[in-house]
Design a protein that fits this description.
Layout: H1 3-15, H2 20-64, H3 71-92, H4 97-121, H5 128-146, H6 149-170, H7 181-195, H8 205-228, H9 233-243, H10 245-267, H11 274-287, H12 294-316, H13 319-345, H14 347-379
Helix pairs in contact: 2-4, 3-4, 4-5, 4-6, 5-6, 6-8, 7-8, 7-10, 7-11, 8-13, 11-12, 12-13, 13-14
C-alpha cells in the first residue's frame, strides 16, 4: 500500500472519520488490490514507449534499404508494414487490450508513412495536404472499427493538420503567416472544443484524451493568434487582397463552424459556450495588428481569456481546465513584464522583478489554485 494512503488513514483515524476496524479493512483491500492500477499505468507507459520505438525502428529499416528495392518490392513492404501491426493488434486483443491498442495505433502511424512512401514510389503529384487527408480518413475508419482512444488521438491531430495544410498551400507565394489568422483562430477554437470533451456525466477514455489534447494545445494556439497578424497593416491588406474574398470567407466559415460542430457533438447544448471563445479570439485579432492600441490591451485580453478558462473549469468541474487557466495567467503576467517593463528597469532591477514575480506571484497563484480546486471537490458528488 502506498505511504500516502497509509498516512491519510492515520490522520482520518485520529480525527474520528473512520474507526480502527474500517481502517484495517481499507488497508487489507488496498494491500490485495492497490497495485493493480499502478501496474496498468506502468504497462500503458511501457507499451506507448515501445510502440514509438517499434515504429521508428521499422521506418529506419525501410529507409536504409529503400534504394536497393524494386518499386514492386517497396510497395509490398509498405503494405506488409501496415498489415503486420494491425494483425498483431487483432491477435493481442485476446490477451491484452493495452497491447492491442498499442499495435493498432502503430499500424495507423505506419499508414501515414505508407501513404507518403507510395506517393514517392509512383511519382504522384506533389500535394502534401492530400496525404494528410488520406491519413485522416484511415484514422477515422480505425476509430469507427476499434473505438480505441489512440485512434481518436490520431484523428484529432491529423484532421486539423490536413485543413491547415490545405489553407497554407492555397495562400499566395511568400505570404507566410500574413493570411493565417482564420486558421489560427480555428485551431484555438478547436482546442477549446477538445477541452470541453469530458462532461461530468461522460468520462470515457477517448473523451479524456481529447480533453488533455485541448489542454496541451490551447495556450500555444492562443499565442499563435497574435503571431498570425505579426505584420504591418499594409502587408496584411495586401495578403488578404491576394487571397480573395471568396477564399477568405470560406476559411473563416470553416474556422468557426467546424469547432462549433465538434463542440456540439461532444457537449450538445453546452457547445453554446464556444461563442465566448469566438468573441475573445476575434477581439484579439482586432487589437493585435493595430499599433495604436498598445501592448497593454493585448496582455489584458490574454489575462481575461485565462480567467474565463478558470471560470469554465469551475463551472464544469474540470480540474485540468483550472490548472491550465492558472498557468495561462502566469504566462500573461510574464509576457507583459518582459515585453513592456523589463527593458525599462535595467538588467539588475529587471532580474529582481523576475524573482519577485516567480516567488510572490507563484505563491499567490498556487494558493488561489488550491482554493479553486477545493471548491470543485466540494461541489462534486
Amino acid at each position: 500500500m502506498k505511504g500516502s494512503l497509509q498516512s491519510a488513514l492515520e490522520r482520518w483515524t485520529a480525527a474520528g472519520l473512520v474507526d480502527a476496524a474500517q481502517a484495517d479493512r481499507i488497508r487489507g483491500w488496498e494491500t490485495a488490490h492497490g497495485g493493480e492500477r499502478g501496474g496498468s499505468h506502468l504497462a500503458i507507459l511501457a507499451f506507448a514507449f515501445g510502440g514509438l520505438l517499434l515504429v521508428a525502428g521499422v521506418l529506419l529499416f525501410v529507409a536504409a534499404n529503400w534504394d536497393s528495392l524494386a518499386p514492386g518490392a517497396r510497395f509490398a513492404l509498405v503494405l506488409a508494414m501496415i498489415a503486420v501491426f494491425h494483425a498483431g493488434g487483432a491477435v493481442a486483443s485476446r490477451s491484452s487490450a493495452a497491447l492491442a491498442a498499442t499495435l493498432h495505433a502503430a499500424g495507423t502511424g505506419a499508414l501515414g508513412a505508407g501513404i507518403y512512401l507510395s506517393g514517392q514510389i509512383f511519382h504522384m503529384a506533389e500535394h502534401w495536404p492530400g496525404a494528410l487527408m488520406l491519413w485522416s480518413i484511415g484514422a477515422a475508419l480505425a476509430w469507427g472499427l476499434l473505438r480505441q482512444w489512440p485512434q481518436m488521438l490520431w484523428l484529432a491531430v491529423l484532421a486539423p493538420a490536413w485543413l491547415w495544410g490545405e489553407w497554407f498551400e492555397a495562400q499566395p507565394p511568400m505570404a507566410g503567416w500574413r493570411g493565417m489568422d482564420a486558421m489560427t483562430l480555428g485551431l484555438f477554437l478547436l482546442a477549446c472544443a477538445y477541452l470541453m470533451a469530458s462532461a461530468p456525466e461522460a468520462r470515457e477514455p477517448w473523451r479524456r484524451t481529447l480533453t488533455w489534447l485541448g489542454a496541451i494545445a490551447i495556450i500555444p494556439a492562443a499565442a499563435a493568434i497574435a503571431w498570425s497578424d505579426f505584420a504591418s497593416l499594409q502587408a496584411l491588406d495586401e495578403a488578404r487582397a491576394e487571397l480573395g474574398t471568396r477564399g477568405r470567407m470560406m476559411a473563416w466559415s470553416l474556422a468557426i463552424v467546424i469547432p462549433a460542430g465538434v463542440a456540439w457533438i461532444l457537449r450538445e447544448r453546452e457547445a453554446a459556450w464556444i461563442a465566448v471563445a469566438v468573441a475573445w479570439g476575434l477581439a484579439l485579432l482586432w487589437v493585435n495588428p493595430r499599433p495604436d492600441s498598445g501592448e497593454l490591451l493585448l496582455w489584458l485580453l490574454y489575462a481575461l481569456g485565462a480567467v474565463l478558462l478558470v471560470l469554465w473549469g469551475i463551472r464544469d468541474g474540470q480540474r485540468l481546465a483550472v490548472n491550465v487557466g492558472v498557468l495561462a495567467i502566469a504566462f500573461a503576467v510574464l509576457g507583459f513584464y518582459f515585453s513592456s517593463l523589463y527593458d525599462k528597469l535595467g538588467r539588475a532591477l529587471g532580474l529582481i522583478g523576475v524573482g519577485v514575480i516567480f516567488i510572490g506571484g507563484g505563491w499567490l497563484l498556487e494558493r488561489a489554485r488550491r482554493r479553486l480546486l477545493g471548491r470543485i471537490a466540494k461541489a462534486s458528488p
